Amino acid sequence: MSTTKDRLYLYDTTLRDGQQTQGVQFSTPEKHMIAEALDHLGVDYIEGGWPGANPTDSEFFAEPPKTRATFTAFGMTKRAGRSAENDEVLAGVLNAGTKAVCLVGKTHDFHVTTALGITLDQNIDNIAKSFAHVVKEGREALFDAEHFFDGYKANPDYALACLTAAYDNGARWIVLCDTNGGTLPGEVYQITLKVIESGIPGTHLGIHTHDDTGNAVANSLAAVNAGARQVQGTLNGLGERCGNANLTTLIPTFLLKEPYRSTLDTGVSEAALGDLVKVSRMLDDILNRVPLRSSPYVGASAFAHKAGLHASAILKDPTTYEHIPPEIVGNARIVPMSNQAGQSNLRSRLADMGLDVSTKADLGRILDRIKEREAEGYSYDTAQASFELEARRELGLMPAFFEVERYRATVERRKDAKGRVIHLSEVTVVVNIAGERHLSVSEGIMADGSDGGPVNALSKALVKDLGPYSDLISDMELVDFKVRITNGGTEARTRVIIDHEDTLGRRWSTVGVSSNIIDASFEALLDAVLWKLTRDGAQALGAE
Amino acid sequence: MSTTKDRLYLYDTTLRDGQQTQGVQFSTPEKHMIAEALDHLGVDYIEGGWPGANPTDSEFFAEPPKTRATFTAFGMTKRAGRSAENDEVLAGVLNAGTKAVCLVGKTHDFHVTTALGITLDQNIDNIAKSFAHVVKEGREALFDAEHFFDGYKANPDYALACLTAAYDNGARWIVLCDTNGGTLPGEVYQITLKVIESGIPGTHLGIHTHDDTGNAVANSLAAVNAGARQVQGTLNGLGERCGNANLTTLIPTFLLKEPYRSTLDTGVSEAALGDLVKVSRMLDDILNRVPLRSSPYVGASAFAHKAGLHASAILKDPTTYEHIPPEIVGNARIVPMSNQAGQSNLRSRLADMGLDVSTKADLGRILDRIKEREAEGYSYDTAQASFELEARRELGLMPAFFEVERYRATVERRKDAKGRVIHLSEVTVVVNIAGERHLSVSEGIMADGSDGGPVNALSKALVKDLGPYSDLISDMELVDFKVRITNGGTEARTRVIIDHEDTLGRRWSTVGVSSNIIDASFEALLDAVLWKLTRDGAQALGAE
Asked: What Gene Ontology terms describe what this protein does at the molecular function level (chains A, B) (predicted)?
C-alpha cells in the first residue's frame, strides 16, 4: 500500500468519438445533459466535439456547458502548405475558446503517405507547428497520436519522432491511440513501456483504445500498468465500430480493484460511483436504447444469479458469487425466475412480494405454471407484476374484480374533405362488474392532437369506466411500452411489456403475449390494472 | 515464427454456462442446432449440460448430437458422506455415457466451509475420489476449479492442493475458473504461471472466465500467454451475469493475431472462420435477440465507418481503418448515413444502389432530407430499401405506381357462442391504379388457424390485389418484423422495420414511423412493395 497515490486522469469522449456510434446523433440539449452527468461523475476532461466540423458541434461550443471538468475541443493538426495561423480548420477549433484543445495527427508512416499524401517530414512539421501555436494561444494541448501502435510496429523511430514533435512543443498529454482497435494488451503494455523509455514520462501519456478485439478495457489497463496516467473512454463504451473503452467499466475497476484502488487517485468520489448505473441508464434513455443487460457492473444482469446453486449460496452470503456488492455502483441483486432457478430462487422472490409460500407443493405448481408460460413466450425477468399475479392465480389468491366481455379496436387511414391524410383509432371495451355492463369508448388522440394509435386508445378505454374501481386506478400512468417479436416471420408472436407508475411513486411492469399485438397489449394493460387493485386491497365484486 | 505449433483446445459451454444467461432457455431441437454449428466451426469440446439436473438437459443427453467434437457432460464432484460410486448426482452424470466428463469442485477454502459446510480435507477427498472414479469408468476427465483465482489469493497452498488432487487422480484437464469474474488480466497471468510452477503443465491447463470487469477475453489471452492450452467460452459471450469469454471474439483473435497466429493451432479452419458471422447470427435468431451491432469481428457495426474522414480514407485503402478484412470472418463493410457521414459516404452508398448522383446540389438535398427524416425517428442504417426510395423521391426518380386511398383495420376480442374467447383481425385496403379502384380485404389468420393480428392482415390485404403489379410481387415474403418505441411514455412514436425476401434470394429492409403502430407498419409494408416494383423495373401506371 503506497501512502501517496498517483493521479489518474479520466478523459471522456462520449460527445465526440461516442457520437461516431452507428445510429447515434446527440441534440445540443442532450449534449448538455450528458456533460452535466459526466461532470457529476467526476471525470477530468469532457471532449465536446469538433467545432467547425458540423453545425450541431458548432452550436454546442457556441454555448458550452459550465463544468468543473476541463471542457475540451477536438480538431486536427494543421494541413501542409499553410501556417498554423492560417489553417481555417485549426482556427475553427481554437475559436471555440476552450481551456484545452486536443488535436489528432498521424504517426503511422503509411497513413502519412497514403491517406494524407505528404512527406514524413511535412507531417512532423505539421505536428510541431500546430502544438507550438496552440500553446502560444495559452491552451492546454493534447495530442491524439492516431494509429500509434500500428505505426510503432511499422516504423518505431518515426512514430516516436511524431510524439516527440508534439511533446517538445508543449503538448501536456501525448495520447497513444489504437485507432483501428486491432492491438492486443501485451503489445500495448510493451509499446507503452518503450514510449516511456524514449523520454516521454507516463505522467504525460494517455491511452485511447477501441474494442475491435474485445480488449478496449484490458488495453487501457495495460497502458496504465506500464505507466500511462490518462485514460480516454466513453460512457457505455459508445464509439466508432465496436466502440471505445467503456468508462462505466473502467471507473469502478480503478476505484475498487487492486492494484489501482491503493495506488491511484481519480476525480471520481465513492458517492458519484453510487450513481454509475443511473448515469449509464440516462445515456440509454437519451439514445432510446434497451440497456445491455450483460454490461459489467451496471447491467441489469450483472448481479443476476440464475443458477440454483448460486442463488442458494447467495442467500447464505452474497460474497460467494459476487465480485463486488452491487449497491456500490448503484446496481441491485436479481434472483430471476427460470427453468434452472430452482425453488430457492422462487421462494425468495415470492417473499419479496409479500407472498409467504410454505408448502413445497405450492412452489412446485407455481414453478410449473411459470415454465409453461415462458414456453409460450412470456418473460417474467422484468415483468414482476405479471409474475406476482400468476403466482396469486396459482395459489387461488387472485380476487375476481371484473371481466372484460369484449373489445374492438379500429384503425383507419383516409383522406379528409381537403384531401389531407388523416388517421383515427377508436376502441370500445365492455366490462362486466358484478353483473353490470360498463361500455367505454376512446379515441387514440394524444396531447398534441395526433393519433396515438390503438394501444393508446385501448389503454384509455379500459380504465375509462371501471365503476367502483375507477377512483383506485385514476392515478395510473402508462410510462413505457416495449414490443418484441419472439419469433421472426409470419408465425411471429408479439411480447408486449408495459410499465406504469402511480402517485405513490410505484412503478410496475406487466407482460402480454399474443400473435396479435393489440391483444398482447390488452393483456399487459389488464394485468397492470389488476396488480394495482390487488396491491391496494380493492374489494372483489366479480362478474356474472 | 516457430515451425511446430502448440495445439490450443477450444471448449464450448454455450449449452451449459451459456444457458445461465438471464432469459435464455434452449429447447432440445435448438441445442442440436447449436451443437451442429459448433461442430462445423471446429471447437474441440461441446459441453451439453448437466444430465440429471433438469428435464431438458436429461432429454438432450438421452439423444446426444453426433459430433466430431468431444461431447461432454457437466456435473459436480461427489458430496461428502458417500462414496463416488453411491453419489446419485455423479451417477446421473456418468450414466449419460459421454466420452468426456467435466466436474466442478471447490478450491476456495471459504466456499468449502461456508457454502458446502465441510472440512478442507473432506473437499480434497471428494475431488480425489470423484476423479479416480470417473477415470476408472474410462472417461476423459476435466476439473472445473471453481473460484480458483479468488481461492489462490486467499489460500494458495490449499487452492493448489485441490488442483493436484484432481490432476494426480487422472484429470486430463485442470480448468482454472474465475467464477465470480472479478480477477484482472495481470493476476490471471501471474497466478497461471504459479500453477505451472507448482507442477501442472500448461498442456493440461484450461481457463474459464466471466466478463464482470469486461476482461473475459483478455483474461483468457493472459492465461494462454502464461501457457494454458485450453480455453472455455461461449458463442456471443452468453453466460451467467455478464457472460463468459466470447468464443466469437477469441477464435478470430487466435487465428488472425500474433503471437497466436504463428505459434498456436486450433481445430478451426479458415473456411469455418468465414462462417463466424453466420453462426453468431444463428444463435441470436434462436434466442430471438437483436444481434449486438458493436460485437468485435461479427457485429453489424464492426466494420461500419461513420466518420467522414475515415470513410474517405477507406475508399482509398480499406486497411487505413480496418484491423482485418471483414470478409475473413464473413462480415461486411458498412458506410452508414448520418449527420457526420458527409458526402463521400453518401455518394458511395448511392453508387452501391446503382444511383449515380453527380451534382453536389443533389447530394446536399438528399442529405438534408435524410437528416429531416432521422429527426422524425426514421433510421436508415438498416432500412437501406427505404433510404433508396427516399433518395429516388428526392431525385424525382420515383415512379408513381399506385395510390393507397384508404385502409381500415379492425381487431376484435369477444366470446363465441360456446363462451370461448376468440380474436379476429380484419383489414380493408383501397388502392387506386390508373384511376381504377381495387378493394381488398384480408383476415389475420395464420397457418395454424390463430389470429395473426392486424399487421399480418394488413400485409396480406395490401398485396392481395395490385392489379397489373400482382404478378411482380407475388413472391414477396415477410420474413422479419421489428418494433421499437423511439420515445418512452404517451408521446411515444413507433418505429417499425420490416424485412422481406423474394425468390431471387433478395432480402430488403424498410422502415415506417408513426405514433400509430398500425400506420408505421403500413408505411414499411408499402415501401417494401414499392422497392420491389422499382428494382424490377415495373411500369408506372399512377393513380387519379
From this structure: (R)-citramalate synthase activity; 2-isopropylmalate synthase activity
